[in-house]
């Protein structure tokens, strides 16, 4: 669920008005114990028309590591020297500080 929350949050950063995931078993499990009233799922109309639909195969995304001193100084995990000395690590960021991290 945390991945979904991150992607929905970042949809705005990418110029979208909102990011939405359909209500499913993962959503159902997440809200259990978090609400004390019945939940009525909100779904898109079956005949909704979209200006654009973007599908991303998340299994093809690679982890990215930010190096000092700029956020733009990033490298894919497979580009990093395996013997690099690590002095400090911060897991997550303002965008991606998830409880799973």
Automatic annotation (TrEMBL):
InterPro entries: Acnase/IPM_dHydase_lsu_aba_1/3 (IPR015931), Acoase/IPM_deHydtase_lsu_aba (IPR001030), Aconitase_4Fe-4S_dom (IPR036008), IPM_dehydratase_rel_enz (IPR050067). GO terms for biological process: oxoacid metabolic process. The keyword Mitochondrion does not apply. Residues 1-101 form the Aconitase/3-isopropylmalate dehydratase large subunit alpha/beta/alpha domain. The keyword DNA damage does not apply. GO terms for molecular function: iron-sulfur cluster binding; lyase activity; metal ion binding. Pfam families: Aconitase. Keywords: Iron, Iron-sulfur, Lyase, Metal-binding. This is 3-isopropylmalate dehydratase large subunit. It comes from human gut metagenome.
């Amino acid at each position: 669920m945390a991945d979904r929350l991150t992607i929905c949050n970042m949809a705005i950063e990418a110029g979208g008005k909102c990011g939405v995931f359909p209500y499913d078993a993962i959503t159902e499990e997440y809200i259990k114990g978090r609400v004390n009233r019945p939940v009525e799922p909100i779904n898109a109309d079956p005949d909704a028309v979209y200006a654009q639909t973007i599908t991303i195969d998340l299994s093809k995304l690679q982890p990215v590591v930010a190096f000092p001193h700029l956020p733009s100084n990033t490298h894919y995990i497979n580009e990093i020297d395996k013997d690099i000395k690590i002095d400090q690590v911060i897991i997550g960021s303002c965008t991606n500080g998830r409880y799973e991290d």
